[in-house]
Amino acid sequence: MAHFVLEVGVEEMPARFLSSLDQELHDLFTLQLREAGLGVATIGTASTPRRLVVDIAGVAPLQRTEEIVVSGPPARIAMDASGQPTKAGLGFAKSQNVTFDQIYVESTEKGDYLALKKVVGGRPAAEILAEVCARVLPSLTFPKKMQWIGKDCTFGRPVRWIMAMLDDHVVPFSFAGLTSANKTRGHRVMGPGPFTVPHADRYAAILSEQGYVTLDRTRRKAVIQTEGDRLAAEAGGRVEWSPLLLDQVADLVETPRPILGRFHEKFLDLPAEVLLTSMETHQKSFGLRGPDGRLLPCFLTAANIESREPGLVRKGWERVLRARLEDARFFWEADCAATFQGWLDKLDKVVFIGPLGTMGEKTRRLEKLAASLASRIEPQLAGDMARAGRLSKADLVSEMVYEFDDLQGKMGGIYARRKGESETVAQALSEQYLPAGQDSPLPLSVAGAILSLADKLDNLTGCFGLGMIPTGAADPYALRRSALGVIRILLELGRSMDLQVLLAEAQAGYTGVAWKISPTESVDKLMDFFGQRLRAYWAGQGIETLVLDAAMAAGFADIVDTWRRVQALAHFSREADFEASVLTFKRAANIIRKQAEQELSGLVREDLFEAEQENAFWQTLIRVEPVWAKQALEGKYADMLAQLRELRPVVDAFFDRVMVMCDDPALRTNRLNLLFRLVSALGGVADFGKFQV
After folding, report:
1. Maximum Cα–Cα distance for the chain, whole Å?
2. Residues contacting 633, CB < 8 A, separation 6+
3. d(CA 362, CA 366)
4. Is residue 381 a contact partner of residue 374, using CB atoms and an 8 Å limit?
């Protein structure tokens, strides 16, 4: 089995390109090689700022072969009466590069046709790999592409060399005006090359030993962390590692060399969030904390070179960071001198979303909505939440947030504390944008949860009212993320609230807007939208689709209550008697569904019972109904479903011995009302008709 390595050398690519390209290369090569019928053992990918690499082990020498039948023209026109080929028959043989004696007649449902059995495949691996490389590389996706002079090609960055080796042979193909060869290049300064690769097995060693390139991303991260921790310990602290930043830094370098720098202690007067953001955003550097948890006047970064004068390199980093911190200090002092009222006045001139008015108007809506939500969740917080809603967007016009937009909300909380607002208000402001995604942390405080809910509900109702409904991958206002945030917050709070009511209230907060969709229709569409998000969210937690459909068919406006029903039903679906129960109660639900045109009151008359099974069903049902009602109020849906074991035998006996759809209208209606009582009670938990058993 052979070893194949492809390396595409490029001008430095942004770090944000690399991780997705690794996965895309793996997926595309896997698909293309499978379709081409070329067997391989493993497909690995790697990347640095200057190269994309595909490493394939266990390459079969030949493409897989298979026998196929090629159909030709009808025999009646391809051969004459004596069986000799006509011009059509000879043409078919020529098109397949065979003689006519290799052709045979095949009988089909449509008649007799010429046919040829031929073996396809068996081409050398090098040919297949060359074709696959030529197809895959132009198809790679980038956030932005470049086109360079003299190259009829677009790519993430200009391509400078291509190496493609199958064992000790070059796999020849062309891309971006270049032809593949057996040459690689190393680190731009420390090992520029070019270096000849005699065999694919030698590629990694040559790149490391001669090119001074650490190809493996995991290894680059480990070097940064290990050496960074050592340098931090020498300085008496520990690195404030950010996983996202670490990934980014590792993809900025080919030869990571951690450097510990320092800055003046006066900058420690700035909030820690400001210092860390300035380091991370502008310098791609990590902060250090001392044993007491406070930031030290130090930072850790990673250079892409082993310098002969590391002191000069360190001073360069320190000089640039000092300038950034001076800017941050200026913004901080300017903001500390400003007032919330001054910022609120500015918000009336800042547009929120075109037709939806200004940010000032938004804060006045949030003032009312946050207070209203608080009255439902924590009434004692209503006053603070009204204030938090009004101040929620004030920091957007601050100098600091204008420069560091990642600090929105966080700076609002910091300024609130500094300017004398309550801790509740400050906490709410700092947590208002959480969660920022599916795996993002939730607000830690109830106040933060309330303000986040208000903000997201306002965004959703406003955008939907304007017809800005996400379609496909397009979601410019992150409405899917907002809806998921609402779901996660409500589940975390554990409070039963009607989502439809909340949406209607948020919608009503807007005044003077020319809606493209009526408020009622908008709320209906939002409920459908939330239904989709709920299904996706819970399906991601392993809940089966049929369970979700059955539980949500009973309503999902109360998300917390719906989750209790989903969990109870999921547990019930794993019980041994689940299918038998479903068959019984699904039958009842289906009968009632078919009688949708008939108005059923649920009133049952015992004097109309003709069979013992009717009375047994009725007596069991009226005994269970009050128990169910109490359990439903307490959200004990698992206990409700357990009661079905008592009901199922009498319902089964009822179906066995009683004709529900009898000729007598009075008897028929009475029996339907009996089933209607059962289905209505169960309908508060789930729609058993949704199950397929």
Report:
1. 107
2. none
3. 6
4. yes
pLDDT, tens digit, for every residue of 218-243? 999 999 999 999 999 999 999 999 99
Torsion, CA 665, CA 666, CA 672, CA 678, rounded to 10? 180
For 165, list phi and psi in degrees, rounded to 5.
-125, 130
pLDDT in tens, 240-299: 999 999 999 999 999 999 999 999 999 999 999 999 999 998 889 999 999 999 999 999
d(CA 503, CA 522): 9
| Strands, E assignment, 427-576 | none
Residue 50 DSSP label? T
Would you give the distance in Å from CA 301 to the centre of its chain? 30
Q: Determine contact, residues 581/647, Cβ cutoff 8 Å.
A: no
Return the pLDDT at 502: 97
- The number of C-alpha atoms within 13 Å of 587 and in the hemisphere containing its C-beta is 12
Spatial contact of 115 and 105, defined as CB atoms under 8 Å apart: yes
The pair of structure tokens assigned to 305 is 């070179």
The CATH number that domain 562-690 falls under is 1.10.730
Can you tell me whether residue 183 is helix, strand or coil?
A: strand
Neighbours of 210 (CB within 10 A): 15
Backbone angles phi, psi at 48, to 5 degrees: -135, 175
Give the global pTM: 0.79
CA distance 194 to 186: 7
515 HSE (CA, 13 A, CB side): 17
Q: What is the CA radius of gyration of the chain?
A: 35
| Core vs surface per residue 396-426: b (16+ CB within 10 A) or e | bbbbbbebbeebbbbbbbbbbbeeebeebbb
What DSSP assignment string belongs to 88-140?
Answer: HHHHHHHHTTS-GGG-EEEEETTEEEEEEEEEE---BHHHHHHHHHHHHHHH-
The helix (run of H) or strand (run of E) holding residue 160 is strand 159-166
DSSP 397: G
For residue 354, pLDDT over 90 is answered with: no
User: What are the structural domain ranges in the chain?
Assistant: 2-62+124-209, 66-120, 217-337, 355-394+426-542, 562-690
Cβ neighbours of residue 371 closer than 8 Å, sequence gap 6 or more: 382, 383, 385, 386, 389
